[in-house]
Amino acid sequence: MPLQNRVTPFGDVVALPGRGLMMGNRGVLHDETRRIVRAFACKRWIACVLEFRGRRRQVMAPRRYTELFFLDEAVAFSAGHRPCAECRRADYLRFRGLWAARFGEPAGADSMDARLHADRLAGKKKRVYLEDPARLPDGAYLLLHETPWLLWNGALHAWSDSGYLRRRPVPASEVEVLTPRSMVTILAAGYRPAVHPTALRAVS
Known about the structure:
Blueprint: E1 4-7, E2 13-15, E3 22-25, E4 46-48, E5 68-70, H1 73-79, E6 82-83, H2 89-103, H3 109-120, E7 121-122, E8 125-126, E9 129-131, E10 141-144, E11 147-152, E12 155-158, E13 167-168, E14 175-177, H4 181-188
């Protein structure tokens, strides 16, 4: 039985078998029995590499942060997680530089996390908005017929916990966008997220 620590493009923490390419955290979300009891514990939601300097952790250890897993960086962005400043230093600096250039404000971790937190949640629910898909950059996630789809290389790719298995054309009408607005701004500025290799093999 998989642990409840996989993250969907909606930002939900669920129990699914796929592990994915990235890890992250948003604080201590589990109790002593490794049951998820809260959606987040802080505003600092980060996305990390799976391996860093040989460190080893007991997954969901008592009173330690909850290890979360994403299919890829595009999913992490959709859920509202930015690059980690420690294990992904180069990506973090690139993200921070684009943030400062686009928003014209100091791009410290605290200020970025505060804005991201406001963009990713409406109360306790995920914040979504309508947009013309022609105006969206690669790496953004859209919602069609209750399914999250990655926009990548001129097509949409259906998310699953194990990879992208289906592809379809980009619709002409407005769609609901799952990726937070500030994240979309960074993608549009040129940040190209790492995506699962199945995005290149998905079939129509």
